[in-house]
Design a protein that fits this description.
Length: 343
């Protein structure tokens, strides 16, 4: 079976994808600099799949170290590139850090892939490239216009997509799948792996679970005066395990020569939008745990509503995100309880 190099494989989406790849019989080598993840995740992966994946503590900006990994694992057939900085606010404060980390790493990776004859890449992009889609583009499909990025982080995703397209144009051997994620949430049903936010979480679900666990006093709901049914923002929350499985599908499609274009793009979402208040209320219902919250002002840069039209991924990739939201929210809570030792 083919070996897949997974950058950022000890991270949140990366670790879940490594599990799905190994369970499908792939060999994996993880490359991660552990800047925003923990080596313990390897034990979590091993507890699920029965063996430790190969791991190399390497920064994707380090060409020499990447070349060394590719030399030592000569059977790598595809790369899944998760490794990136992803905090929107931090990217506004430290744009150069984001441009260096997120752009240079992809350039270095593509150079080394070419030098080592690796011709397939799956890239983690984001629905952030669509900004706030106009009403006629909701739900969002892959043909919706790309809008000016609202943050350096968002800009790096757009530029990364362009780098891949330009390189594919120049290098006919390269095949790429760009996956635009909506809002990934939840944890593996085993509660052996999950999201490990650094410091105070920016994202909704980790803040909800930490509040439920008593680590945070109350959740702040950013705005209830949006033009949505309950006034809070709407997103397409997708289960991280469903999302991980889409990466396996993308790899299979490229390696079996089924890709219709040299660069294919898929929106990965459920097709259903849920509001912040719906998420919080459903979480309280399914867990039976209270999450105190207050409504505060809008968060700068937030988009009012966005959700996916996942038809292309459903029909072409043969993949569907169908785990019920109740199950997803429970998985997030089970992971938080495990982390905090709550019975
Ligand atoms: C954000 C980024 C997105 C990025 C993703 C990666 C923006 C505009 N978008 O997505 O580009 O790919 O993170 O992690 O920053 N909320 C609260 N209280 C909280 C936290 C969040 O009410 O404490 C609300 C937000 O206002 C939003 C929703 O929950 O409506 C989801 O927020 P979040 O999880 O941060 O994701 P996005 O903002 O959609």
């Amino acid at each position: 079976m083919a070996r897949i190099l997974v950058t950022g494989g000890t991270g949140y989406i990366g670790s879940h994808t490594v599990v799905e790849l190994i369970q499908k019989g792939y060999d994996v080598v993880i490359v991660d600099n552990l800047s925003n993840s923990n080596k313990d995740m390897l034990d979590g992966i091993a507890a699920i799949v029965g063996k430790q994946p190969d791991f190399e503590q390497v920064d994707c900006n380090d060409a020499t170290a990447l070349a060394d990994v590719m030399n030592r694992y000569a059977d790598i057939q595809a790369v899944i590139h998760f490794a990136a900085s992803k905090a929107v606010g931090e990217s506004v404060e430290q744009p150069l850090l984001y441009y260096r980390n997120n752009l240079m790493s992809l350039v270095t990776l593509l150079e080394q892939m070419k030098a080592h004859g690796i011709q397939h890449i799956v890239f983690s992009s984001s629905c952030t490239v669509y900004g706030q889609p106009s009403a006629e583009h909701l739900p969002v499909d892959e043909t919706a216009p790309i809008q000016v990025a609202l943050s350096p982080y968002g800009n790096t995703k757009q530029i990364n997509e362009e780098i891949i397209r330009d390189e594919a144009h120049a290098n006919a051997a390269l095949h790429a799948t760009i996956l635009r994620y909506f809002n990934p949430i939840g944890a593996h049903p085993s509660a052996m792996i999950g999201e490990l936010p650094n410091g105070v979480p920016n994202n909704l679900l980790p803040f909800v679970t930490q509040t439920a666990a008593g680590l945070r006093q109350q959740l702040r709901v950013y705005g209830n005066d949006y033009n949505t049914p309950d006034g809070s923002c709407i997103r397409d929350y997708i289960y991280v395990v469903d999302l991980a499985r889409a990466h396996v599908k993308a790899v299979e499609r490229m390696l079996s020569g089924q890709a219709a274009e040299q660069v294919e793009v898929f929106n990965l979402g459920t097709g259903r939008g849920l509001s912040v208040l719906e998420i919080v209320n459903t979480f309280m219902q399914v867990t039976g745990v209270n999450v105190p919250y207050e409504i505060v002002g809008r968060r700068e840069g937030d988009i009012e509503q966005v959700w996916a039209k996942p038809d292309k991924a459903n029909n072409v990739l043969g993949w569907k995100a169908d785990t019920p939201i109740e199950e997803v929210l429970l998985s997030a809570w089970n992971w938080e309880k495990k982390l905090r030792g709550i019975e």
